[in-house]
Specification:
The complex is a heterodimer of chains A (482) and B (95). Chain A is globular, with a radius of gyration of 21 Å. Helices cover 38% and strands 13% of the residues of chain A. The two termini of chain A are 19 Å apart. Chain A folds into 2 domains: 4-253 and 392-472, Amidase signature (AS) enzymes (Alpha-Beta Complex); 298-374, no CATH class. Chain A has an 11-stranded mixed sheet with strand order 1-3-2-4-6-5-10-11-9-7-8, with helices on both faces. Chain A is built from 15 helices and 11 strands. Chain A has 482 residues and is an alpha/beta fold. By secondary structure, chain B is mainly alpha-helical. Chain B has a domain at 5-43: Histone, subunit A (Orthogonal Bundle), CATH 1.10.20.60. In chain B, a hairpin with a 2-residue loop joins strand 1 (83-84) and strand 2 (87-88). Chain B is flat. Chain B starts with a helix and ends in a 7-residue tail after the last strand. The chains are: A alpha/beta (482), B mainly alpha (95).
């Protein structure tokens, strides 16, 4: 198995064909996915047809796109016209999107080969895929463990070599946390860098689409393909897209901000040691360690679990049983039709967040909860602004723990929420953030290192991540799939 | 602080979720536990701070008010649970 950049080179230099590559990944997928369960749907015919088109283009000597012939897995909350888009929810079980998400359109325009749609926590709410209405995906490194979430299917697909790259979405850590737990690279670009058109909305001021890959180079390649202004998303940033493939920079002078709050209680000691030694390895090569403080870190989860559910309660009001999605079999008036359809269609975590958000926005509680959370969000952003006065990127662990066993946190919503302690603030402040592999625990589970950068400094974050990747020269084995 | 059944019932009604009494109590208990955790925000002095709804600068986006191609009726109706001709069918709303 190879990385996306090499696959593309091999196809363009006619060492192989897009069809052969697609067949190879599809056959690995068929062999492995019954164990990992990363995919909600696989579209073999569409994938082979897309690959054939790439081969024909090459045979005719035509110009091909950035992702020519590269198999891609797509999270199932991104709209695709040629496959279901379920969001891991019963309420959209039979939904067929009438349009492609902008990122999906861009994948097609760049000649990618979409192999299937990946599992997720229902409506991207969760950190394990256990909230999927259909099944729980497994971590390829230990099949008893979760792959993280919510983009757990995409992470597992890449980790297990069923697709070299994948798309996910990140509202509070949903790309970076599963990347950390599966030993993959997961990048959340700056809010607005990538169009959200056709990404099923969860928390609209926080949601961002981004890539998974097995190298920083692959993540950068996908970011190049999907970034840019989109008239269909008025929050997409109208700024030129830099050349994300110019990734090499000197480690010398790279200022690494290390917040003491990221290394406090609750952090697994092996993760702490691994991240600390990665930082030391870079400083030994000339990077500058800068101790910074992010005093709002301990308030991030609390602010996030007001802001995100409030936005969710509004966004998910559209599932009314009238226009699309599940409608209850029996009902009297229209209110009952909606209330029963929604009750039957949404799982417990989604219901919980709708209730929480509706409560926090309701008359008498708005000031105390929603407005206060938005003021704390301002403080969180100010924290980052101050820290970035003295450093280029902020370095720390991605997740406080490695992958945990299926069921370990299922009964306690709050303990699941705390998985995102290092990742939610990135979204609240709109920053780019990446998780890269940093080592393995003694139990053989991957450890993720997170880098966060300034708004719109996506390239700076990718370059810094590439420095870590290069200097650590970490070569993780393929997961054992047992 | 568990949230009482009446409050959860009111919120569930606002959110159009038909919940059983057991579910109201269960979600009320869980909502209370989450709000207890969120209460830590009260420790912070937020006076003088402007609420931040969007972290990256956003601005109004205008375009000419002219008809453009859009989703066809058939495409818009393709997922309708019940439809007739060009319409979504729902229970009668006005007596």
């Amino acid at each position: 198995m190879t990385d996306a950049v090499s696959i593309r080179q091999d196809i363009l230099s006619k060492k192989t064909t897009a069809t052969r590559v697609a067949e190879r990944f599809l056959s690995r997928l068929a062999a492995i996915d019954p164990k990992v369960r990363a995919f909600l749907s696989v579209n073999k015919d569409a994938a082979l047809a897309a690959a054939k088109k790439v081969d024909e283009k090459i045979a005719r000597g035509e110009k091909t796109g950035l992702l020519a012939g590269i198999p891609v897995a797509v999270k199932d909350n991104l709209c695709t016209t040629d496959a279901p888009t379920t969001c891991g929810s019963k309420i959209l079980e039979n939904y067929r999107a009438p349009y492609d998400a902008t990122v999906v359109r861009r994948l097609r325009e760049e000649d990618a080969v979409i192999v299937g749609k990946t599992n997720l926590d229902e409506f991207a709410m969760g950190s394990s895929t256990e909230n999927s209405a259909f099944f729980t995906s497994r971590n390829p490194w230990n099949l008893q463990c979760v792959p993280g979430g919510s983009s757990g299917g995409s992470a597992a697909a890449v980790a297990a070599g069923m697709a070299p790259i994948a798309l996910g979405s990140d509202t509070g850590g949903s790309i970076r946390q599963p990347a950390a737990l599966t030993g993959t690279v997961g990048f959340k670009p700056t809010y607005g860098r990538v169009s959200r058109y056709g990404l099923v909305a969860y928390g609209s001021s926080l949601d961002q689409v981004g890539p998974f890959g097995r190298s920083v180079r692959d993540a950068a390649l996908v970011t190049q393909a999907i970034s840019g202004h989109d008239p269909m998303d008025s929050t997409s940033v109208d700024q030129p897209v830099p050349d994300f493939q110019q990734l090499e920079r000197d480690v010398k002078g790279l200022r690494l901000g290390v917040p003491k709050e990221y290394f406090g209680a609750g952090l697994d000691p092996e993760i702490r040691a691994s991240v600390e030694s990665a930082i030391a390895a870079l400083t030994a090569k000339g990077a500058v360690r800068v101790d910074v403080s992010l005093p709002m870190t301990e308030f991030g989860i609390a602010a996030y679990y007001i802001v995100a559910p409030c936005e969710a309660s509004s966004n998910l009001a559209r599932y009314d049983g009238a226009h699309y999605g599940h409608r209850s079999k029996e009902y009297g008036d229209v209110i009952e039709m909606m209330s029963k359809s929604r009750k039957e269609g949404f799982g417990p975590e989604v219901t919980r967040r709708i209730i929480l958000g509706t409560f926090a926005l309701s008359s008498g509680y708005y000031e105390a909860y929603y407005n206060r959370a938005l003021k704390v969000r301002r403080r969180i952003k100010q924290d980052f602004d101050k820290a970035f006065e003295s450093c280029d990127v902020i370095v720390g662990p991605t997740s406080p723990t490695p992958a945990f066993p299926v069921g370990a946190k299922a009964g306690d919503p709050l303990s699941m929420y705390l998985c995102d302690v290092y990742t939610v603030a990135t979204n609240l402040a709109g920053l780019p953030g990446i998780s890269i592999p940093c080592g393995l625990t003694s139990a053989g589970l991957p450890i993720g290192l997170q880098l966060q950068g300034r708004v719109l400094d996506d390239l700076g974050v990718l370059k810094a991540a590439r420095c870590f990747e290069r200097e650590l020269s970490l070569s993780l084995p393929w997961p054992s799939l047992t | 602080m568990a949230i009482d059944r009446k409050t959860v019932e009111k919120v569930a009604k606002l959110a159009r979720l038909q919940l059983t009494p057991e579910e109201l109590d269960r979600y009320g208990g869980q909502l209370g536990a989450i709000l207890d955790y969120i209460a830590k925000l009260e420790k912070l002095d937020v006076s003088g701070l402007e609420p931040l709804a969007q972290a990256v600068d956003t601005h109004n986006v205008f375009r000419a008010d002219e008809p453009r191609p859009c989703l066809s009726r058939d495409a818009a109706l393709q997922n309708a649970p019940e439809k007739a001709g060009d319409f979504f069918i729902v229970p009668k709303i006005i007596e």
